[in-house]
Amino acid sequence: MTPAQRHRIFALTPFDRLSAQWQALGIQVRHRCVRGPETGMTMVRGRMGGSGNAFNLGEMTLTRASVALEDGTLGHGWIAGRDKAHAEMIAVIDACARHDSWGRRIDAELAEPLADVLQREREERSKAAAATRVDFFTMVRGE
């Protein structure tokens, strides 16, 4: 699993669920914050039709954090919103995942199960939305 895939899963997972699963994994590390956690704004860009010219869609709140483990390994985390603890936890997990032995455990025992839960929840939301789908049609009057 790539670091970007891991970040996506952890950022989309609610903090309470991520925290509980991380503690259940049992990896205990000491860290210090190198930057943040800090909250700011970022510009969200879009494209007309997905492939047209880029335009500024608007701004969103973003929280980021960078941490260093005792051995100097750096980790970074960022989330949409203002949850500083969530961003810091993602940074700690990112730093731990850079160690080979922990990285395999984090992918197999943390990231993959959380990805499966996110996928199931997405499918459930899609089914609920599909149940409310309305098909519109136009009738043409003959004269």
UniProtKB/TrEMBL annotation:
This protein is called what? Phosphonate C-P lyase system protein PhnG
* InterPro entries membership: Phosphonate_metab_PhnG
Q: Name one GO molecular function term.
A: lyase activity
Q: Which UniProt keywords apply?
A: Lyase
GO terms classed as biological process: organic phosphonate metabolic process; organic phosphonate transport
Keyword Lyase among UniProt keywords: yes
- Say which domain of life the source belongs to: Bacteria
